[in-house]
C-alpha cells in the first residue's frame, strides 16, 4: 500500500524552479530517505509534502486522499506530521510540559498557558508514555533549555508523536550531532518507524545506509534516481552527482 505519493510536483519561486516534475511513492511501513546536494530541493519537497508550500502544479496524496490543497494543520489531522530543522521546543518549559502542551493543543482545547493545572495534568500519563518512547523519561522535569542538542531532537520527535502520525517526516534528524547522538537517533528512528511510515531528509550517508529501505536522490529540483538503497548507491549518475567515493 502506498502511504504517501507525489505526482508531477512543480514549485516555482519567481521564475526559479525549485521542484521540477517530482513524483514519488512511499510505501506503508518503509523508511524513505530524500537525499541530494545542497540546494537540490529537499526542503522545498518536504514543505510541499507537508502543506507548508502549495505546489505550482502537481499533487500529493496521503493514503490516496488528495492533501496538497489542505493547510498544514489539516494535513496533520489526517495523519502526516513533521519535525522541523528549526526547533519547535519551548525552552522555558520543562520537557514534560512541552509534551503536555502539544497534547493539549492537539486535543482541540484552546492553547492557553493559564489553563488550570488539573486540566493540563490529564495529559500527563500520555506525555510520560511518549517520553518513554523517546528515552527521555529521566529528563521529564528538566527545563528544555538545558537539554543537549541530541536530547532536543528526541523531544521534537516526541512532540511529533503527539499527533499520532501514520506518516512522520523528519528533517535532518541527526544534524549537528556527534557520533554518540547519531547512533542514538538511528535507534530511535528505527523504533518510532515500527508500525509507521517515515520519510527523512538526511545528509549523513552512513545514517541513510543504516536506516533507509529506499531513497530518492534529488538534483536541481528533479528526481535523479529512486529505489532500494543498494541499487541507487551503485547508479553511476548518482555517484557522479552526489555520493562520490563516500559510499562507492
Ligand atoms: N522561498 C524561496 N524563494 C526563492 N527561492 C527559494 C525559496 N526556497 C528555496 N529556494 C531555492 O530553491 C532551491 C532549493 O532549496 P531547498 O532549500 O529546497 O534545497 P535543499 O536541498 O533543502 O538544500 P540544503 O541541503 O542546503 O538544505 C535553492 O536554490 C533555494 O535557493
Automatic annotation (TrEMBL):
It comes from Deinococcus yavapaiensis KR-236. One of its GO terms (molecular function) is ATP hydrolysis activity. It holds the Pfam family BCA_ABC_TP_C. This is Amino acid/amide ABC transporter ATP-binding protein 1 (HAAT family). Keywords: ATP-binding, Nucleotide-binding, Transport. It comes from the Bacteria. The keyword Nucleotide-binding applies. The keyword Nucleotide-binding applies. GO terms for cellular component: plasma membrane. Residues 4-245 form the ABC transporter domain. SUPFAM superfamilies: P-loop containing nucleoside triphosphate hydrolases.
